[in-house]
Amino acid sequence: MLTDVCPLSEARSALDGEQPYSRAAWLGLAELGFQGVTIPEAYGGLGLGELELCVAAEEIGRALAPVPSLSSVYICAEAIRLLGSEDQKRRWLPGLANGSVIGTWAAAERTGEVLPGAIATSFADGAVFGEKAPVLDGLAADVCVVLAKGAGGASDLAICDLTGPGVRRERVDSIDPSRPLARVEFDGADAERLGVAGEGWSAYESLLNRAAVLLSFEQVGAAERALWMARDYALQRHAFGRPIGANQAIKHKLANMFVKNELARVHAYYGAWALSTGSAELPLAAAGARVAAIEASSFSAQENLQTHGGIGFTWECDCQLFYRRARLLATVVGGNQVWKDQLVSALEQNNEQGRA
Amino acid sequence: MNFDDTPEEAAFRLKARQWLDANALLRSASRGGAADDEASSLAEARAFQAKKAEAGYAAITWPKDLGGMGGTSIQHLIFGQEQSRYRVSSNFFSVGLGMCIPTVMKFGSDAHRERYVRPALSGQEIWCQLFSEPAGGSDVAAARTLAVRQGDGWVVNGQKIWTSGAHYSDFGILLARTDVAAPKHKGLTMFIVDMRSPGVEIRPIRQMTGGSDFNEVFFSDVRIPEADRLGQPGEGWKVALTTLMHERLSVGGTFGGFLGWRDLLNAARENTIAGRPAAEDGRIRERIADSWVVETGKRLLGYRAQTALSRGQTPGPEQSILKLLTTAKPQENAYVVLDLLGEGGAVRQGELGSTWRKIEHSWSFGAALRIAGGTDEILRNIIAERVLGLPQDIRLDKDAPFNSLTN
């Protein structure tokens, strides 16, 4: 489906600012039920497991589909499905499940990592005050899960209707303009608490673990596409009387890409297992998937460009689509260093508990 | 290696500094940037270049009768070091004076030298280098642009690419194929081409960054008089090697404005990793150390070359190493800083303001740096083959007639 509906020209037209996301790909995905894979049938979804979502995520990544999959499906809808009250589920899930409603999340407020003690946005008495940036798909989204400081000072998650009063949004430039970002100001916007009061931070961390696994499939898909794009070019481009792929400098480069991609793939699978079985190993497996996926997608995008030489650096060449997307996805939901720290912390914890 | 100037060198340095003080503004003292649009920065650069030419600093090593100073390479280096502290630009002239004019001086006639050297020196005329083609980037000798003899001149058809500054250049040196039946290196000829000739069309290339530093140049029935041939017909490759040797001497120092160890340190001081100061994080400290080692190493290699020059020796393989060291860090350092910025690292500009320029330049142009002026891969081959003496790859295309090659 995505090969037909979502060629790379979709990402390019989003890059050029012609559309905030690919309507064609989003509608095509909705026909397959993608947005509602894990949402119970009672709320208009397919009621399947996370594994099916992983399979779809890889294809979205391979197509570099410019769609709000991470923000709407992996984070917002999952948050409401897992933490929402019956009313909240009934209000939001059917629209999220068929793609007619787009959701997102808002955690970061300034540059630097998101830390529980440093959140300035407040939530009390059903109203949110504060400023969040960057918010992925913040302009296209209808509903947002907001990480805020709750009444008692501890963190809360809150659901906020972005189309209501008290919300001001503006576009901020994204390193990958095919996936646009926004600054969202909440000035007493109506909101409802999502989940248990004061447990927002741990809920947020667990949502990120889940999203990291799904996102790693998108990254693996994109990395693999970049590798094969480089491989095809190495066969087609001739220098010194033979394909450039005949040179060991290029062969070894592509082989290194392949190794990193396969490593990322098996870690994504391990993450998918932990996610779909509700395993206690999820924090470790998610961190492994995230770290390996960042490495694979960054390296593949970077070396695909290098393999293309000068032409790879031009605006017209598709190399930049991979280079930009790899960087954006390496940044959202937290970067390399933070996840490596989580990985080691998880190992230390397992060690103390006598597990290997 | 000797870090100190000899008394003569120190005297020259002082003289250069005094002249620069009188004719340019220190970077640290001048407010704001140089002119932003190309036309006004070109005008500024031309005015400064004319003054340099008058004082002899435009071509320190060239003989006096060609408008130079008749000085030494070491004096050239010293002037470059001093000039880098001032807010002036020589970039518009670096291709012409660094590559094209030295080639004209070596292979051109007396009439060529008389006609072209001085106007280039004073910045009146700007030159570009027309070597790379869509089908031959690393493999320059695969050029397909065709020059056919007609009457008392040549007619050129074809396309060049990655030509820096073609749109403001007056002349170019053009590598064209004049004998398709000869092996690829033997059928080339070099020409001087007037960039305003009928049939020359220049189109800017839009880069991934959105900007345009390079051009495509199309030739449709462009006439070149016989007198503007540079070197003998079929000797174009020999001429090109001279130009490329000069390019390698100048590349490495040409590009700047990338993230260095100091930027990493600043970013580390302002950010945390898992709630702890990033400046105390071993991984970040290691990156800062690695970056410092490379940056300082580049400077030390420069001193080593300087020492060799001042003893009248030829510098060793420093130049090939220099480009690899220049390209090694910008992209990597950009990743580190962007990671430190957390999710904010996905935002262009925003609250980062002008700091962002350097980050994006390293992230985005840092990728081009590994390609332009000899890719990382080609440079490693050069070191392996020419410095370490390892065998060359088997070259099937070397001796075959060019028109028998399929790709």
Catalogue the unreliable spans of chain B: none
CATH superfamily of the largest domain in chain B: Butyryl-CoA Dehydrogenase, subunit A, domain 3
Determine the mean pLDDT of chain A.
Answer: 95
H/E element sequence of chain A: HHHHHHEEEEEEEHEEHHHH
How many individual β-strands of chain B?
Answer: 10
- SS content category of chain A: alpha+beta
Q: How much strand of chain A?
A: 15-25%
CATH superfamily of the largest domain in chain A: Butyryl-CoA Dehydrogenase, subunit A, domain 3
Please state the structural category of chain B: alpha+beta
- For this structure, the CATH topology of the largest domain in chain A is Butyryl-CoA Dehydrogenase, subunit A, domain 3
Give me the Rg of chain A, rounded.
20 Å
Q: What would you say about this model in short?
A:
The complex is a heterodimer of chains A (356) and B (407). Chain A has eleven helices and nine strands.
Characterization of this structure:
The complex is a heterodimer of chains A (356) and B (407). Chain A is an alpha+beta fold and 356 residues long. Chain A has three domains: 89 residues, Butyryl-Coa Dehydrogenase, subunit A, domain 1; 94 residues, Butyryl-CoA Dehydrogenase, subunit A, domain 2 (Beta Barrel), CATH 2.40.110; 152 residues, Butyryl-CoA Dehydrogenase, subunit A, domain 3 (Up-down Bundle). Helix content of chain A is 53%, strand content 15%. Chain A is built from eleven helices and nine strands. In chain A, strands 1, 2, 3, 4, 5, 6 and 7 form a seven-stranded mixed beta sheet that branches. A two-stranded antiparallel sheet of chain A has the order 8-9. In chain A, strand 6 and strand 7 form a beta hairpin. In chain A, helix 8 runs antiparallel to helix 9. Chain A is globular. Chain B is α+β, with helices and mostly antiparallel strands and 407 residues long. Chain B folds into three domains: 83 residues, no CATH class; 110 residues, Butyryl-CoA Dehydrogenase, subunit A, domain 2, CATH 2.40.110; 121 residues, Up-down Bundle (Butyryl-CoA Dehydrogenase, subunit A, domain 3). Chain B is 44% helix and 14% strand. The longest helix of chain B has 29 residues. Chain B is globular. The termini of chain B are far apart. The interface between A and B is large, with 55 and 63 residues.
